[in-house]
UniProtKB/TrEMBL annotation:
Protein name according to UniProt: Hydrogenase maturation factor HypA
Species classification: Bacteria, Bacillati, Actinomycetota, Actinomycetes, Kitasatosporales
UniProt KW keywords: Metal-binding, Nickel, Zinc
Organism listed in the record: Streptomyces heliomycini
One Pfam match: HypA
Entry's family note: Belongs to the HypA/HybF family.
Length: 131
């Protein structure tokens, strides 16, 4: 399952971005996933939760945005949704797709940082016992 390696990479990239800014935590990460990227969003969400354990992202939400596969025809210029499995032939002229316009994306688009950590209550001050 390569979703675990994708999740680990997302956690690593967000943690590297957090260090210079002194972030204390992450509430939410938004990732765009292209239809043709070969990533199963539910599997990625499961792996993301595991990958976040013990990191700055522990407890963070993963939100995904789906991007359809789109292609354009070199001979006639028409564009279409490729679907899955991808249909790479133009429905108008039956020419082959000249260019894949979208669908292979896999990118972090947003990170919502947590507010500063709350200061824990100070430990109670020991009181001398009365005799």
């Amino acid at each position: 399952m390569h979703e675990m390696s994708v999740a680990l990479s997302v956690v690593d990239q967000v943690e590297r971005a957090a260090r210079p800014g002194g972030a204390h935590g992450v509430r939410r990460v938004v990732v765009e996933i292209g239809e043709l990227a070969g990533v199963v969003p539910d599997a990625l969400a499961f792996c993301f939760e595991l990958a976040c354990a013990g990191t700055l992202l522990e407890g963070a939400e993963l939100a995904t945005r789906f991007l359809p596969g789109r292609a354009s025809c070199a001979p006639c210029g028409r564009t279409w949704d490729t679907g899955m499995p991808p249909d790479m032939l133009c429905a108008v002229c039956r020419g082959g797709a000249g260019e894949l316009l979208s669908g292979r994306e896999l990118r972090i688009t947003e990170v919502h940082w947590s507010a500063s950590p709350t200061t824990p209550d100070p430990p109670p001050v020991p009181q001398p016992e009365e005799s």
